[in-house]
Amino acid sequence: MAKSSFSSNGNLKKEPEKAKISKESLREAFMLYSYIKPYRGKFILSLVFIALSAFSTMIFPFLLGKMIDAAAPAAQVQLPQNSMGGEMFGFNLKTVNWSLNTILLLLFLQLSIQTIFSFMRIYLLTEVGEKSLANMRTDLYGKLLSQSMSFFSEQRVGDLSNRISSDLSQIQDAISFTLAEFLRGIFTLIIGLSFIFWISTELALVMLAVVPLIAVVAVFFGVRIKKMARKAQDQLAESGTIVQETFQGISIVKAFTSESYEMKRYTSSIMGVVETAISNARYRGVFVSFMIFSVFGCIAFVMWYGATMISSGQLSAGDLTMFVIFSAFVGGTFAGFADMFSQLQKTLGATQRVRELLRTEGEPVTITDLLVNIQNPILGKVRFEDVAFHYPSRKDVEVLKKITLSVQAGEQIALVGPSGAGKSTIASLLLKFYEPNRGAIYFDEINSKDFGLTELRGQMAFVPQDVVLFGGSIKENIAYGKPNATMVEIIAAAHNANAHEFIDRFPEGYETIVGERGIKLSGGQRQRIAIARAILKDPAILILDEATSSLDSESEQLVQEALENLMKNRTSFVIAHRLSTIRNSNKIVVIDKGSVQEIGTHETLMRNEHGLYRRLVDMQLEWN
């Protein structure tokens, strides 16, 4: 289960879930190597610099030890003449003697070289990580864009956003940082242990006899403390949820005088956090105390044993200094592996989720310029032939039942009926958000399945009840369906949508930023911008889903005029809430319980005193 916490803005967020390390999870991770492949030259070079960086780092304690020996030459160990131990590049490292000044110069040379190696490994791995992850983000975003509406109806937007942000960031960290640290740790471990045994096998065995015991105890306490910390984090998230729910429903809390109940609920949750935190503090206190005693005790014991070897002439002071520093490097590397292992599990979990999305089959949409690639322009004739449909998530509920309907090019068709009758579902089928389970839809007597999905949608425009504007400028939102439109075309579309006047009153005019989801504009202004967007696209088929239902009378009149401009000479499907707005439609189609109940003009349907349309009109007149 993912660990939950609260972000700085108060929203609940989840720590990336961990995956078990197995052949399958590792295979999934290696499949992402295809994104690194274009940069494999730099990737391999970065691995070389990681090895060189680790090796150059381990030279530092060696030179420090030699510096101490140079300061006290009398304390140096004299090896037999025929001794070959430590021979490298034609000379014996144990017996080599440099002056203090020479060693200082070598130290600064080592640090300079290490600086170059460290810079190159960080730079190259970051470049490879950023570029490969940019390609992966693009592919994942494109894959999500191509998914069907049924996919989005079953997914939470926050989870999908999390895949692009958190999961891919986790993979990026693994490539740019965790992988480098892991490989560097391996090299450091190998080189460090080699130097430790090279300095003194006896002292190395003494140290390694103590370290496993400390490691076992540390792992035991570490697992226990992590579980307690996770429990406390989950309890804190639960208390945060209580706060969120209470403030969201504050009117109900106050109306039912439930302040006392909410206080008790919150206090109980917080006290649970306190108890868990205190219990965790006991474990951490024991753990820290044990580690301080054990680590410093181990260092003291090793130093004591090394000092006895110095006094007996088996070891020099410089060798002991080298040994202690190398041991610190090795110990630090061991300690870091636990965190790297945890990061690896998180990366594998993120990789599995990303790969799962990348393998998902999407719609056959074409991500290209719609305005250039329309090969089969349609005139606007539409025919439904025995269309039946149920949503993928509700297969037992048939929303549409044998819908048969014929619409000529240029006609205005009004779809009316009670809530839940299936009106919006017809709009979704026209836009091919879903495919009919039975029957077929024809455009200009060509089956909709024979059209390219992008090509067909490119010749339609949709104006919903809840208008969605994007966070850019008014100009960008109007040009959304035709990105290459000129400013003259954009202004002309705004004029026809009765939007130019209010846009022109803004200080920035068409460059005015509308805010997230158009929050800076009124409902009527947002509707008119959406209509201008549809006018500019110049579609063959227009779909209006209750476009005026939530507006006041003044805004409705302006929007209705704009809609009349939009519907001229094009096939229009109007889902109507206010029946007074569709009196002049060529056909009014009355739908109830997924079936067509009546078809006719307003005058014809009003003559049927027992008809559903007459009843709906009378009910609205009574309410008004």
What would you say this structure looks like, in words?
The chain is an alpha/beta fold. Among the domains are: 1-199 and 338-363, ABC transporter transmembrane region fold; 201-314. The chain contains 19 helices and 14 strands. The chain has a six-stranded mixed sheet with strand order 10-11-12-7-13-14, sandwiched between helices. Strand 8 and strand 9 form a beta hairpin.
Short description:
With 624 residues, the chain is of the alpha/beta class. Among the domains are: 1-199 and 338-363, Up-down Bundle (ABC transporter transmembrane region fold), CATH 1.20.1560.10; 201-314.
Strand content: 5-15%
Give the overall shape: elongated
Could you say which structural class the secondary elements and strand pairing correspond to?
alpha/beta
CATH topology description of the domain at 1-199 and 338-363: ABC transporter transmembrane region fold
CATH architecture of the domain at 1-199 and 338-363: Up-down Bundle
Radius of gyration: 36 Å
Unreliable stretches: 1-15, 79-86
Mean pLDDT: 79
- Helical content stands at 55-70%
Number of DSSP-assigned strands = 14
- Quick one: CATH superfamily of the domain at 1-199 and 338-363? ABC transporter type 1, transmembrane domain
Strand order in the sheet with the most strands: 10-11-12-7-13-14
Instruction: Give the CATH class of the domain at 1-199 and 338-363.
Output: Mainly Alpha
Separation, N- and C-terminal Cα atoms: 54 Å
| Continuous helix count | 19
For the largest beta-sheet, the strand count, sense and barrel status come to:
6 strands, mixed
Assembly level: single chain
